Amino acid sequence: MTSFSCGIAVGLALLAAPVQAASPSFDCAKAGTATEHAICASDVLAGLDRHLAEAYRAARAGAGETGVAQIRADQVAWIARRDACGGDAGCIEDRMEARLRQLQSLLANGLADSGLSGAYCAGADLLLVEDDGGSVEFSISSFQGGGHSCGTGRVRATQSGPEYVGQADGCSFRLTVADDRIVFTSGGEPECRQFCGARASFGTHIFPFSTRRSAPPEWTTAGESGGC
């Protein structure tokens, strides 16, 4: 069995296992934040922390150099979001579980080395992403009933923290990576109207990582790829 296959098997077994009382992945004697102290004080959070650390290692084991760098950057950004919970145990648990689902998606779909690359669905809406490391190219198609829709060609967006920001023909677009999902928004400029039919408009579109699959090879636009 390859190291990648082993990583998938280990990661999925960990994520499927029930959370049991456990020590966290770090030394509680060195806990330095309210969040770390809350994790050390809770068997549930401590168990989640250890499962998450093991799943993180499994994801990195199944990734090449580019994938490892992206997974590490995602982890750093996620830790900042987790620590924003302070000592709120419910908030910490929610964000830990969301990160586990994100890592589960990477492992289950064999995408640990692909960054954000893939096809994501939200109902009939489709988001295609090609991750180049530090920037992405994406295309979205959104079907809004009555035959009305919005869609873009390939749009290049540059990474800024957890966000990727791009522009096409005067309309700005933003992809925000938030725990277990990608959130698409447009800037709402008048030029954005050209991407939509008469009774359609871009709003906020949420694409869960759990829906991700491999994107069609050599894709051009989401609309031409047939939707979800």
TrEMBL record:
Name the UniProt key words of this record, in alphabetical order: Signal
Q: Which GO terms describe its cellular component?
A: extracellular region
Query: Which positions fall inside the Lysozyme inhibitor LprI-like N-terminal domain?
Result: 28-103
**Pfam families for the chain:** LprI
Tell me which InterPro entries the record gives. LprI-like_N (IPR009739), Lysozyme_Inhibitor_LprI (IPR052755)
Q: How far does the signal peptide extend, from start to end residue?
A: 1-21
**Protein's name in the database:** Lysozyme inhibitor LprI-like N-terminal domain-containing protein
Species: Tropicimonas isoalkanivorans
The beginning of the lineage is: Bacteria, Pseudomonadati, Pseudomonadota, Alphaproteobacteria, Rhodobacterales
